[in-house]
Design goal:
Number of helices: 3
Shape: globular
GO molecular function: alkylbase DNA N-glycosylase activity; DNA binding
Radius of gyration: 15 Å
Order of helices and strands: HEEHEEEHEEE
EC number: 3.2.2.-
Keywords: DNA damage, DNA repair, Hydrolase
Helix content: 10-25%
Oligomer: single chain
CATH topology: 3-methyladenine DNA Glycosylase, Chain A
Family: Belongs to the DNA glycosylase MPG family.
Structural class: mainly beta
Protein name: Putative 3-methyladenine DNA glycosylase
CATH architecture: Roll
Number of strands: 8
Length: 161
DNA sequence: GCAGTGATCATA
DNA sequence: ATGATCACTGCC
């Protein structure tokens, strides 16, 4: 499956968090794809570094990094090992905005590089909401004015709930 | 409209 | 060692 399809397939699924014995969850409603070494909006565009290493790893792991010294961003790694791709989870039905989302789910650098599975305390369940084409919007990505010809590509997906 | 905030990365 | 940059948010 290609990266854009992977991104769309996360919509309507439930993000799950085990934190201090409690279960936090809500339905994923907004995602962005970052696709491969040629994507000028992606951290992987200038090659592998210590920070973006999880993007180059196998799918099914988390890539979490600190943005503007303040907000943690949650990404789900997709694609074959060696091919840098990830899906930024921007919003759920409860929380709008990627920084507020990680705060709500108590996500930080501690989750970086961990597996998306109950064992890590952070995972994604199968579709909880039926996604029809007319409920899904496709838009350009946010916050990458420097990405030139990649800036306005339709790589952001929103689910109306 | 723009300041805050600090890790990360390139340059040296 | 230093400086620029930044997949955001909230307040002006």
């Amino acid at each position: 499956m290609n990266t854009l399809k992977e991104a769309q397939s996360l919509l309507g699924r439930r993000l799950m968090r085990r934190w201090r014995g409690k279960l936090i969850s809500s339905v994923i409603t907004e995602v962005e794809a970052y696709d491969g070494p040629m994507d000028k909006g992606s951290h992987a565009f200038r090659g592998q570094t210590k920070r973006n290493a999880p993007m180059f790893g196998p799918s099914g792991f988390w890539y979490v990094y600190l943005c503007y010294g303040v907000h943690w961003m949650l990404n789900y790694v997709v694609g074959d090992e060696g091919y840098p791709a990830a899906i930024l989870i921007r919003s759920t039905s409860d929380v709008r905005g990627p920084g507020k989302l990680t705060a709500h789910f108590h996500i930080s650098g501690a989750q970086n590089g961990t597996m998306a599975a109950p064992t890590s305390g952070l995972w994604i369940e199968d579709r909880a909401v039926h996604v029809t084409k007319n409920k899904m919007k496709t838009l350009p990505r946010v916050g990458i004015p420097y990405a030139q010809d990649w800036k306005d590509r339709p790589m952001r997906f929103i689910l109306d709930v």
